[in-house]
Amino acid sequence: MIRPGTDADAAHYIRLVREAWAEYPGVVFDLHGELPELLHLATHFAERGGALWLSEDAHGMIAARPLRDEDQGWEICRVYLDKAARGTGLAQRLLAVAEDHARAHGARRLVLWTDTRFLAAHAFYEKAGYVRQGAIRILDDLSNSLEFRYSKPCAGLVVEALDAAAAASAERPLARLLADCVAQGGSLSFRAPLEPARARAFWKGVTTEVAGGARILLVAWLDGALAGSAQLHVAAQENQPRRAELEKLLVAPALQRRGVARALLRRAAQAAAAWGRPLLTLDTRAGTAAEALYRAEGWVETGRIPRCEEDEQGTLRDVVLFHKEAA
Fold it and tell me: Which CATH number does 2-153 carry?
């Protein structure tokens, strides 16, 4: 259903962009003044080492090109769909084609820019694992455009710390991740099922603490998919200046046993040491895979709280306390 675009498809590109922009007041479509490349768009991207695709029914388009100023970076661009085609899965298929092409040509990071007014696009990109990064770009155009930069690692297993803007943009996928892990029976303070509104409210609180410097949020991607997260509470008490609490270690159920949790733990230890908090602590329900993982990673049992936490069947279980000195 998706094929390489050609210059002969110019009428389709022009229609897709014009109709999409017409949905937003104040967005001006000026073909010859600001968008002349739409008349020869396939050549435009080919000359820049990129590629362009169009769905067979001409309901959607997408392009990708390497970035000269970002090593192993590729930009996803010109993502437009007919209004009737949204929600059909076409956008996801187009994005997968562009991402796979970029990855096959050496991309390690994907970048895209989207107008601050295009709220539905923001939600789509965030669901695909992109997070907001960097300053807003100001375009000197007739639409007075302001654009957000979104980015994500796209190859291998990568763990990154998010700032407040990135954390806010990741709230939707992280809320789904938390709900999935709670549903799986994780020792995560919540009972299943976790309602979406409660999950989003939890992550909004995390974003606030990241902005205030009280919390470090780590997120893991595996081949471009948001795979897990962990948090470090670093707002230590005055008499505990060396201590940070590791909280909410999450791994997407479909991506478990792929090294994601270990990568998050090791990155958390590095972040804590860099923050001046080399003593890490955590707690987890006894008898879980998480307990086994912490022991395998060198965490030391500090003690137990008997019959402290209910499991998914409602049975009271012990909670194990662990600590570890970051190297």
Answer: 3.40.630.30
* 15 Cβ neighbours under 8 A, 6+ residues apart: none
Cα 312 to chain centroid distance, Å, stands at 28
| Single-letter code of the amino acid located at 120 | A
Q: In which residue ranges of the chain is CATH 3.40.630.30 found?
A: 2-153, 157-325
Q: What is the mean pLDDT of each run of 10 residues along the chain (327 residues)?
A: 97 98 96 98 98 98 94 96 96 98 97 97 97 95 97 98 98 97 93 96 98 97 98 89 96 97 97 95 96 97 96 93 91
CB 29 within 8 A of CB 115: no
Structure tokens at 297: 């990673």
Strands 243-251 and 279-285: parallel
Alpha-carbon torsion (37, 103, 153, 229), positive or negative: positive
Q: At the topology level of CATH, where does 157-325 sit?
A: Aminopeptidase (3.40.630)
Q: How many residues can be counted in the chain? A: 327
Contact of 130 with 150, CB cutoff 8 Å: yes
What residues contact 240, with CB distance under 8 A and at least 6 apart? none
Beta bridge partners of 233: 215, 245
CA distance 123 to 121: 5
